[in-house]
Amino acid sequence: MADHFLHSFENLVEWLRAHVQAPEHFTLSYAGEHSQFIRFNHAKVRQAGDVQQSSVDLKLIADGRQADLHLTLSGDPEIDRQHLAEALEQLRQTLPLIPPDPYLQLNEQAWDSQHQQQAPLPDSAEVLARIEAGAGDLDLVGIYAAGPICRGFASSHGAFGWHQANSFNFDWSLFHANGQAVKANYAGQDWDPQELDRRLARTREQLDYLGRPLKTLAPGQYRAYFAPAALEDIVGLIGWGGFSAQAIATRNSPLQRLYAGEAGLSPLLSIAEQVSGSISPAFSGEGYPRSDLRLIDQGHAQDQLTSARSAVEFQRPANGAEAWEYPNALSMAAGDLAQADVLRQLGTGLYINNLWYLNYSDQPAARMTGLTRFACFWVENGEIQAPVSTMRFDDSVYSLLGTQLEALTREREMLLSASTYGQRQTGSSHLPGALVKRLTLTL
Amino acid sequence: MFDSTTLLRQRFAALRSGGEFFSLRHVRQSRQQLSVRKNVAEPPSLSRDEGAMLTVRVSGVEAYAATADLSQHGLQQALDRAEALARQIAAQSLLDLRDQPVATARADYLSPGMDSAFPSLADCLDLLNQESASVPADERLVNWQVSLGLSTVEQIYLNSAGAELRRAQRLVFPGFGVTAFDGSDSQTRTLGRDNFGQQGGFEVIQRCGLLGAGKRIADEALQLLLAPNTPSGVRDLLLMPDQMMLQIHESIGHPLELDRILGDERNYAGTSFVKASDFGHLQYGSHLLNVTFDPEIREELASYGHDDDGTPAARQFLIRDGVLVRPLGGALSQFRSGLDGVANSRACNWNRAPIDRMANLNIEPGDKSLEQLIGGIENGILMRTNRSWSIDDARNKFQFGCEWGQLIENGELKGVVKNPNYRGISSNFWRNLSAVGDADTFQVLGTPNCGKGEPNQVVRVGHASPACVFSQIDVFGGDA
């Protein structure tokens, strides 16, 4: 299947190179997947399906103008060449209708990048049997998604990139009869059935804590520990516009005061876009090799995610960011708090495994709100006492990851995106846990 | 229009399956996204997409396969994959659908004005350029963007029981946003964008109010920059329709989705504070609250004749005089729960399976003019245009923020305030509904971005609402 994706892409690139002649130029980015989705409720299969899809984004450039067309591919070489020819013609008719783009910039380098990983994935019958054995008697709900994912890029300047990997992502929750739940995930490229067994067993053990009487907290300020999955929600929200060159320049970034030097974050905090070693492609859909970038270094703003158009408009170097300038391989530096010491150092406060539905109360001030979700516990004197009922927080990033950040854990977790909007995503976050001296709960 | 019909009929008729029932849902869509930012046209983004989902039922177990290979061989392969999967999961299947009825209807549905041409790309770009140029010169106006999204979607549903349902829709999404910055704070004022979309033609752009709006939007962004923060405290809250739609969406729509109540979404979108046993008697809101599922307002985003499983769509009250009467559940959820529902089984595209979604979810108008709504408030605040939304996974504790606030004192509108936020609990909030605006305050709005489901899906939903007043709500501002 993966070879089919690559051959399909190569055929289209070859056809375009023969039919797009100077002064015209093109770029062609490719995305393909053959995915199996198995959805669970009450540890049974609620819905199962198989999705085979591939598409290209064709950009045509001529006379300082550019236009893009997204085209779904059928997989039949003849039909796809015909559709690509029609797309090319549509773009040729479109370009004269639009003005020259003053921010047009192309990468004219003829780079080559290829990564292929074809580790075998388990048969879905085996996965089902394993999940049934590990949690068939529990209230498990979630989704298993697996199969090859491909990304490609080519240009009339001779660039060619191909990234293909088999991967799986099992994302699930176990629910206690009282409605409380614990969430877990097993995702990667090398399937290890014993590792799934271990993770299922670990979540099963946490259910015991959830059976204790629920503690309801009053609004106020509390010490709190954010596990990596909870911290991912915070940095994920910041990521929308936070590091974007366009958002920073147009005053729509939640970190605009950090980038303006008017506010600072904790010296413990360093964040990078760490492409090398991640599961995402080493090239962008715009045709730039993606660089490792220091976004925040010891609390100070550093690089910005800069797409090709932003590079011209704001006179910055393009660094492989996609057009939407969102981190796709975010990595936060570890701290020195041992995971084993988290409860002791938290002392009395909230242990937050997951957050949910974050948004801004005041974006220029980086003040955000959100809720606890999944296995959040009240801790006293370093010992878990009870699960807590859902609580809303409302606090500033400059407080949570600034003045009130006490420690980051030494151990980090690599969290692979379970997002499947449109297609399975290749984003990841590599994060420690964070201990904060004060979290404001409001409701 | 529907020019794939004959070919699809032939290929569907030639499909072979060992299942007792199978269906094909073919979707073809084209999109055009245009944008002008600070008087510079961004590259046009065009899209052509086409594919099909084959669903099969084998001994009461259903599975699906999606493909863009629409050849006879490609469709048969997809059907075979779905059938193999249905057999594979049979032992662990949650559902036995042997007794679930299947659709048999044959009908066509068209958006209003489908037969009239939409302005050309060049004309649309001219319009956006004109509107962008209308933003006045002011160094505090640091960013502005005018946009226009246009989607044409055709769907053909065929099944082995003889159903044939065809739908063609044209959807229009205008947008305008202006950001003002004073060296420290920034404030953005928008029109349309994620708060507006309708079916139809050029008249949608006019109804949105985009034409000639640049000066007003820019002025309002500047007013916000100069305005004080919203004061904290408990006040009466007057929500205009472009915030009501979000309030309806998050704290009525999602909690009434029957698949959430049945637990399907607990790992992702969440559950609901509403229980299956609540329907028929739960006092969801005050007696002024009347909520309908209404697929019959032609221009509203999710008006259609049948849902994606082939169930005929009709207007239904979900909440009548404040009492919860009916969930948002399609045929499958109705079969599972035994509750009556609506035709809201929807998929975002050919590559995702239908699940319970909002479609058009509206609040029925009351009898108060806007002047009467304002006049009835002693100490309150008007808020318009959603900009921030957050609600817990049971859809109960919420906090929402708007772009624009205006204090109300002794029945009169007073000064503008910035960063207006409010928070509450759904199950209490609607019981504080104290006045409902009349038809003159009623607006048909919608959003292209409602996310849910595993695998994830984004669908278009419509919301129409009058302005509404809620008594004694916790209101607060920002830090800046």
TrEMBL record, chain A:
Q: Which Pfam families match?
A: PmbA_TldD_3rd
One GO MF term: metallopeptidase activity
Query: Which branch of life, at top level?
Result: Bacteria
Q: Which InterPro entries match?
A: Metalloprtase-TldD/E_C, TldD/PmbA_sf
Q: Which GO terms describe its biological process?
A: proteolysis
Write the protein's name.
Metalloprotease TldD/E C-terminal domain-containing protein
**Can you give the residue ranges of the Metalloprotease TldD/E C-terminal domain?**
219-441
Native species? Pseudomonas putida
UniProtKB/TrEMBL annotation, chain B:
Keywords assigned by UniProt, alphabetized: Hydrolase, Metalloprotease, Protease
Q: Where is the Metalloprotease TldD/E central domain?
A: 120-225
Which terms under GO biological process does the entry name?
A: proteolysis
What is one Pfam family matched by this protein?
A: PmbA_TldD_3rd
Q: Does the keyword Hydrolase apply?
A: yes
Provide GO CC annotations from the record: cytosol
| InterPro entries found in the cross-reference section | Metalloprtase-TldD/E_C, Metalloprtase-TldD/E_cen_dom, Metalloprtase-TldD/E_N, Peptidase_U62_metallo, TldD/PmbA_N, TldD/PmbA_sf
**Residue span(s) of domain Metalloprotease TldD/E C-terminal:** 237-475
- One annotated GO molecular function: metallopeptidase activity
Q: Which residues form the Metalloprotease TldD/E N-terminal domain?
A: 24-86
SUPFAM superfamilies for the chain: Putative modulator of DNA gyrase, PmbA/TldD (SSF111283)
Membrane-crossing residues?
none
In the record, the note on similarity to other proteins reads:
Belongs to the peptidase U62 family.
Its name, as the record gives it, is Peptidase C69
- What is the scientific name of the source organism? Pseudomonas putida
